[in-house]
Amino acid sequence: MSTIIEQPRYSCAISAQQTVLAIPGAHPILHSGPGCSERSSYFSITAGGSKGFGYTGGPHISSTNSTQKEIVFGGIPKLRDTISGALKVIEADLFVVLTGCTAEIVGDDILSVTADFASKGYPVVGAETAGFKGNVYYGYKEVVTSVIEQYVGDATPNVRKGLVNVFSVVPYQNPFWQGDLQEIKRILEKLGLEVNILFGAESAGVGEWKDIPNAEFNLLLSPWVGKEIVELLKRKYDTPFLEFPYLPVGAQNTSDFLRKIGEFAGVDTEHVEKVIAEEEKIYYTYFGDLENFLTTFNNEFAWEYFLVADSNYALGVSSFLTNELGLSPKGIYITDDAKKSHQERILKQFSEENQEFDGTVIFENDGGKLQRDLKSKQGEDRELILGSSWEKFLARDTGKYYTALSLPLTQDFTLNTSYAGYLGGITLIKEITRDIFR
Q: Of 88, 96, 113, 436, which is most buried with the most CB atoms under 10 A?
């Protein structure tokens, strides 16, 4: 039975238009009703830390803007005209056609249309992303797999030693996705690996996607999002993959992550430890400033916290806060609507990280229910709430500290901010302590 939820944390599958825009040189074409692209853009950009439109994003996205005529008589002719027009006026290396609800309800076969253009040498692929099929996480998976199947295709791998494809955060759904991918690429390259980061400013664009079959291995930094993608690449190109169950934050998790990568990739252990020592020396120099801060503001610091985020950030940030900073979790709310089987794995991972998490993790994507539960667990002491702009208002109303962590973020400008890795851990400490001065 359908229900209405308060304070949504993600949008529908067609918001994967932002996944396309996150690939440098790629352009989305929507076969949908008027307004679908605009609403998706607003949620992903304005509520995602005030990200810009990207290349040909926002009002420049091509769309059929299907009306009653296309619903009654079919929208394939208009779709063909829209694709042809985009090919003429948009300079892009890849065009990805996405479907909205109306196109799939009336049965428009967009894949046959995109296949026809592809057969004529145009870089056009299609992905079925009707909103009724799932949320943006589903749309992300459909776009990535469609590009792999239809554009990268049945290539014969020419494996290069040390080349790794990274699959992790969903672009724009994580407000810090650009900075996070930048930090992950940085530390992997310090190990001596060649990195296809695939999205954002650090990506070489469509050329990286064509290079996917040549990777020595694939890296999945997520407890569940992207698992089907790396499994597809294993079947298609026989590329092994390594899973790390969350985005590492801070020194402990990131050093553990690098050791696992080094062992899997066959990187010399001495070199791995040298890189870790260099990074930790810088990290703990800054970390020492926190000790000085706490000697003065210990009584003002929040030693208990609530956290609202998707499962990737919830695991990584919570592990950092509890295992490295020594904070106690009072409630961890996971909002990405993971399936029951994934939820069991996530809970198991939390318990392995620290048994203090047992009983604190709740899977809830209804913001109203989430905040009512959070408020019921608040105490009189100073507490920290990490989450979205919804939680910012809650923290203000209840006199708690707040740190921006997850969508929607309507009053922040994230740019290249990152909470991942060594640098991200220091940034997160800075953001947490800053609210005390505020």
A: 96
CA angle (135, 360, 244) in 5-degree steps? 60
Angle, to 10 degrees, between the axis of helix 250-265 and the axis of helix 421-437? 170
Nearest Cα to 146, choosing from 83, 232, 219? 232
Question: Which has the higher per-residue pLDDT, 54 or 148?
Answer: 148
CATH of the domain at 348: 3.40.50.1980
Same domain, 124 and 39: yes
pLDDT tens string 28-50: 999 999 889 888 888 887 888 87
Show the domain range for 133. 13-152
pLDDT in tens, 84-128: 999 999 999 999 999 999 999 999 999 999 999 999 999 999 999
Q: Are residues 284 and 430 in the same domain?
A: yes
Query: What single letter denotes the amino acid at residue 409?
Result: L
List of E strands, 280-398 = 304-309, 328-334, 361-363, 383-387
With tokens 């973020």, the residue in question is 409
Q: Please return the burial class of 359, using the count of CB atoms within 10 Å of its CB with bins 0-12, 13-18 and 19+.
A: exposed
- What pLDDT band is residue 15 in, cutting at 50, 70 and 90? very high
Q: How far apart are CA 195 and CA 185, in angstroms?
A: 6
Q: Where are the beta strands (DSSP E) in 62-211?
A: 62-63, 94-99, 124-127, 163-167, 194-196
Task: Report whether the peptide linkage leading into residue 408 is cis, meaning its omega lies within 30 degrees of zero.
Answer: yes
Count: domains in the chain: 3
**Looking at 265, 294, 327, which one is the last position of a domain?**
265
Q: Cα(242)–Cα(189) distance, rounded to whole angstroms?
A: 17
Q: Which of 173, 187, 195 is nearest to 414 (CA)?
A: 173
Confidence of residue 1 (pLDDT cuts 50, 70, 90): very low
Whether residue 1 lies inside any domain: the answer is no
- 21 with 94: CB under 8 angstroms? no
Q: What is the mean pLDDT of the chain?
A: 94
8-state DSSP, 228? H
Q: Are residues 282 and 261 in the same domain?
A: no
